[in-house]
Design brief:
With 207 residues, this protein is an alpha/beta fold. Helix content is 35%, strand content 24%. The chain has a five-stranded mixed β-sheet, with helices on both faces. Strands 2-3 form a two-stranded antiparallel sheet. Strand 2 and strand 3 form a beta hairpin. The mean pLDDT is 88.
Amino acid sequence: MEQVLDVYKRPYTEDFPVVCMDESPEQLIETVKEESMKPGKDARVDYEYIRHGVANIFMANEPLKGKRLVEVTNCKTKVDWAKFIKRIADEMYPQAKRITLVMDNFGTHTIGAFYEAFLPEEAKRLIDRFEFVFTPKHGSWLNMAEIELHVLNAQCLNRHIATMDEMQEEVLAWQMHRNKKNAKINWQFTAKDARIKLKRLYPTFSD
C-alpha cells in the first residue's frame, strides 16, 4: 500500500507518466418497450428487457494529466489485456521513456501475457516500457482507475445499452469529452494517513 502511495506522490513528468489501469464487466441490455415523450407526458421505459451478454471495459487514466483511454472488448483474457497495454504504450505515450502502471493483482496481469499475445521481440519491447506497480490484495480501492470507472458508469453507462458497437461509440464520446476537459484526480490519501486511519492493518510491536 505504501509503495502505491509513494508512486502517487511523484511530480508530473511527460517522460515518466504514472498511469492507473483497471477493468470492469458491463452488461449488454436491450429495452423491450419504450414510449417516447409526448407533450405533457414523460417518457416511459418498460421493466422488461433482453440480456445480450457481458462486455469488458478496460480503463487507463493518468490522474495528474487528466488523460484517459477506454476500450470495450468481448473478453478480458491475458491477450486482451496485453493488447490494451500495447495501446497505452504506443498510442498514449509513444515518446515516454518509462511508464509506471498501477493495477491490481488480477490473474491476467502477468509478464507472460505479452509473450502469449506478441512475438518475443515485441513482448520484450513492451515490457521494457513499463514499471509495473500492483495494489495489495483487498486494496484495489488504491487504484485511481476505479474512480474513473465510477465516473464512466455514472455519466455514460447508467442506462440500457444493447450492443458492443453502441457501447464503444458511447464510451469513446465520453472519453473525448473528459480528455478535452483535462479532468484530473486530486489524490489526498498518504502513507501518513494510512498509518493513522488503517493502524489495525499494521503489525504491533511490544517494547
